[in-house]
TrEMBL record:
Residues 38-152 form the DUF4329 domain. The lineage of its organism: Bacteria, Pseudomonadati, Pseudomonadota, Alphaproteobacteria, Rhodobacterales. The keyword Signal applies. It holds the Pfam family DUF4329. Residues 1-24 form the signal peptide. It comes from Pontibaca salina. Keywords: Signal. This is DUF4329 domain-containing protein.
Length: 186
């Protein structure tokens, strides 16, 4: 390649770089803003303790009012392995579901969202938050069908019986297909 051709290629590449912005972190683009995450963490923290004490899942919704204020529905008690939240009565847009995965049980993998969690959110057209017995917080982006670990072990209250490693290595991000494979492995 001649010096002139090489120089033209460099100039073209630099011009394209100025015209087409570099892609931001694709995971960051899938997450909600920090204010929403902080509100969800504050809401789920006391519910985690209740979930551990009763051995049940608890669930509800995060909504947004017309004035853009966030609110949470009542967190209702579900079963040992599931929970169906009640839709809000007030005129609001539902932004996300949220639920706990109950108390620690060494025979139940609960440190990551399930395919059912993801599919339920996708069917409802909302995103989701899942709190685990190990104190992890997950975000389910139902459009992208991706679960992203917002914060790891112990960032929310942790069941005192929890044992690190029972669910194997936990990644920070899973697609629906990867969750399906993970569930089959357990």
């Amino acid at each position: 390649m001649s010096e002139r051709t090489c120089l033209l290629a460099i100039v073209s590449a630099l011009t394209l770089a100025l015209i087409i912005p570099a892609k931001a972190n694709p995971v960051a683009n899938m997450l909600p803003d920090q204010a929403e995450i902080d509100a969800v963490k504050a809401r789920l923290a006391p519910i985690q303790l209740l979930s551990f004490a009763t051995g049940r899942e608890y669930c509800g919704y995060l909504g947004e009012l017309a004035n853009e204020r966030l609110f949470f529905t009542e967190m209702i008690r579900g079963g040992h392995d599931g929970c169906t939240p009640r839709l809000p009565r007030r005129a609001a847009q539902v932004r996300a579901s949220l639920h706990t995965h109950g108390a620690y049980d060494p025979s139940v993998p609960a440190e990551f969202p399930t395919v059912l969690d993801m599919d339920s959110d996708a069917r409802e057209g909302v995103n989701g938050y899942v709190a685990t017995p190990g104190g992890r917080l997950w975000y389910i982006n139902s459009r992208a069908l991706v679960a992203i670990q917002i914060c790891g072990e112990g960032c929310l209250p942790q069941d005192e019986r929890f044992r690190t490693g029972d669910d194997g290595p936990i990644r920070n991000r899973y697609t629906r297909e990867e969750l399906l494979q993970l569930e089959k492995a357990h």
